[in-house]
Amino acid sequence: MNRSSAQNLNHMSHDTHHHDHHIDASKEKLTTMGHHHLDTTMKMYFHAGTTETILFESWTTPSITIFICSLIFIFILGILYEGLREIRQYLDETRLIERPIISKEGNETELERMNTELFESAIRTGKKIRPQFPERILHSVLYAVHLILGYSLMLIAMTMNVYLFFAIIFGIGTGHLLYAWCRTISLAKKNQRST
């Protein structure tokens, strides 16, 4: 190897080393920026931080105030999720009471008898009436909104943030408590009227 080719090789090695040093420095700078501002890496374990990106890139919680507001909003979403489930169930029960499933021939099968025995006011005879088109649209819209809300809550839980997770659980639990309590009161009032 002659002297000029050895110098060129040494110079190229120095340039490569210098270039690698810049790449390492820029990686370190990005990592440092991430820890001081918003940590953009998704943690795949439960953690208790207050800096999160929730559902959308624009929904971030850089301050504790925004994080607490997000917790309250997610708690309310949990209550609404349970409320939608109760509304859908109420509409289905109301439809069965108003239009019981009775066979056309007049002889009931065991399944039909079980269906109508659940509701005292449903022991009437008549033809099975299918839900009307507007009623089916309402049920479909409520079902779609319920699914969207459910999957959104699931994705929020997948941030693996303990605070957000418990906001969902407590919201759904509170919703169940409220709506089950309201249902119990309305059933008691109906029973008082019928006696």
TrEMBL record:
Protein family according to the UniProt entry? Belongs to the copper transporter (Ctr) (TC 1.A.56) family. SLC31A subfamily.
> What residue range is the signal peptide?
none
Where does this protein reside within or beyond the cell?
Answer: Membrane
Any one of the GO CC terms: membrane
Instruction: List compositional bias (Basic and acidic residues) regions by residue number.
Output: 12-25
Q: What Pfam families would the database entry show?
A: Ctr
Q: Which organism is it from?
A: Rotaria socialis
Superkingdom of source = Eukaryota
| Keyword entries, A-Z | Copper, Copper transport, Ion transport, Membrane, Transmembrane, Transmembrane helix, Transport
The biased composition feature labelled Polar residues covers 1-10
Extract the InterPro entries matched here.
Answer: Cop_transporter
Membrane-spanning regions, if any?
64-81, 137-157, 163-182
* Protein's name in the database: Copper transport protein
- Region annotation (Disordered) maps to 1-25
Cite the GO molecular-function annotations of the record: copper ion transmembrane transporter activity
Where would you say this protein principally sits, based on its record?
membrane
| Membrane association type | Multi-pass membrane protein
